[in-house]
Amino acid sequence: MVHYYSSENPYMHSAIIQGVVFDLDNTLYAEPENAHEYHLQAAIEAVLLQCSDLDEPRVRDLLIESKDKYGGSLDIFTKEYGADMERLRRDQYARLIKNTTNSTFFDPNSGLRAGVSKLRIAGINIAIATHGNEAWKDHALAESVLGHLFNDRSVHVCKDDMPDFAGKEAGTQMHERALDMLGVPKNKALSERGIGYVLIEDTLQNLKFAKEMGEMTILINADNRYSPEDIEKAGYVDVIVDTHNDATGVIIDSNAALEIQMRMRREADTGLEASSDFPEPL
After folding, report:
1. Which one, of 152, 153, 176, 150, lies nearest residue 163 by Cα?
2. Could you tell me the fold of the domain covering 3-30+108-259?
3. Where are the domains of the chain?
4. Rounded to an integer, what distance in angstroms lies between the CA atom of residue 72 and that of residue 64?
5. Strand, helix or coil at 26?
6. pLDDT in tens, 111-168
7. pTM, 2 dp
């Protein structure tokens, strides 16, 4: 059952959380309302560099058609127009970086800076798994004033790092790579390997395979992007939060509550053992 988190309705997970994997866009920072237009325009410009026989309106239509037909907005240009995917992605993010520099795209006060800082102070390991490329990741972290919290690049995994650009929704591979980077041993069954770890996302389908690996899953459902019916039907979301800052609050609260419960159990067990040392009454 999905838990709807708030300060009045905290959540306690079944395991102490040792590490958190963050999505990047609209998770570590809040995207503006017109973010889609920025991404769309960058994709159009990237496509036109390779497919000069197409015009902008046609590219817009094909981006939508590609999503429906192949699952990715750029796939149609590689499969039907001979474009190179690696170059498309590189050019798209280069244009996106250019278009968002010195713009209002990033609000340094809208992200998870305070929450991530609390996780680090608590000794919880952090990583990033993003469908963006490395250049965009570095740009977004710098612009949203988060770079100093994720300065260990060994715990960053980008879609470009994966074979055939397989993303989080495509299987367990990207999730496994993130756990590898966090130093999680591989000697457990795949369904148990993620126990004690969390994926925080704003995209529902990206949580599915993390849950299959035993990870706790948190969905940031700002602006009610997903209906309660869709979330319940998916069956792989543990916690819903309405704001970005609540996403890290869930983890801090859960660990604190579970540690108290574990201590109380230890004290109770100690008390039982102590009482058993007394001689039986005559």
Report:
1. 176
2. Rossmann fold (3.40.50)
3. 3-30+108-259, 35-100
4. 9
5. coil
6. 789 999 999 999 999 999 999 999 999 999 999 999 999 988 879 999 999 998 999 9
7. 0.90
